[in-house]
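Blinded run. Sample ID left blank on purpose so nobody reads anything into the name before looking at the predicted structure. Input follows.
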Amino acid sequence: MSAVFDAHLDLAFNAALGRDLTQPLTLLRSHDPVDNQTACVTFGELKRSGVGACFGTLFAAPASADFPAGYEDWQGARRQALAQLDQYRHWEDSEHIRLLNSGAELKEHLNGWDDQRPLGVVLLMEGADPLRDADDLPFWHEVGVRLIGPAWGRTRYAGGTEAPGPLTDRGRDLLIGMRDLNVTLDASHLDDESFWEALELQPQVIASHSNSRAFVPGNRHLSDDMARAIGERGGVIGLVALSSFIRAGWKDGDTRASFAQWAEHAGHYADLIGWNRVGLGSDLDGGFGLEKALDGMKRYSDVLRLLDEVPEHEREGVRGQNWRRWAEEHL
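Blinded prediction complete.
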C-alpha cells in the first residue's frame, strides 16, 4: 500500500505551543499544554498511520484575544517563522523528519519509504506576513519554502478568511516573484477577489486544505468555480477534517460531522475536477483538536476512514498518490 500524503500539518506551530511531537500520543495527551484541544498528531502516530510525506507549515499567528503572544508586525511574524524553521531543522537533525526541496527528492524518499523512514516534509508558508516584501522571497526559497499561501485572515499581501479584499501592490509583486522562483500558490484562505487575481499572476496553484462552499457557506471554502480553476491548472485540493468546515451551522457541543458528510465534499470536487485532483489536507491539530474533528475519530490514523467512503479504485489516489504525482511534477 502506498504512503499517505497529508497536504497540511501545522507541526512546528504545535511545537511552539509546547507540544513535544516526539512523544507517544498517549503520553502527550496526559500532559497536553493546549487546553480543550485533544491532540491527534505526533510523529509516532503519523508513522503508524502510514504517512510518508506532508506539507509542513510555517504558520505565524497574528495577535488576537485568543493568542495575545501573536505578531503585531512583519518582524514579529518573521521571528515566529524563523523559530519554526529552526524546529524543523532540529527534527531533521534528530531523524524525525526529512526536509524535501524538490520533486526528485520527494520521489526518491517515497520510492523507498517504509515505516522505518522519517516523515518527509515540504515547507509551506501559511500566510505571507513573515516576508518583508517580494525581495525577501529568495531567502525563504533558499531555506526550503516551496509553497506559499498569501493569506490567512487579512495579511499585508491579500484578503483572506473573513477579511475580503484584493491583492495589495505588495501581494502582486509577491505572486510575480513566486512564479519566477517556482514557488506554488496555496489558494487556501484567499478571499475570492484575491484568488482570481492571484491565479492570473501565478497559475501554479493548489489548495492545501479547503472544503467546498457548496455545503458550507463563507469565503474560507472554495466555490465551484474556484475548484474548477484549480483543477484546470493541474492542482489538487486537500480535504479538511474540521466539523464546522464539513457541516453547515456546526457549533461546539453538536454531534460531530460524519465521515460520510466529509466524503460528500470529496465527491463533489470529484464531480467538478476528477478524483485525481482530490487528496488529504487534514489540518488536524491546526487550531482544533479531537473535539471538533470527525465523529468517531480518536486519533490521526482514523483520518483514513475517509477512504472507506471513496470509490475503491480511487482510494490510492486520495490516500496520497494524487499529491505525490502533483509534487513530483511541480516542486
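Unblinding after everyone has recorded impressions. The domain at 4-330 is CATH 3.20.20.140 (TIM Barrel).
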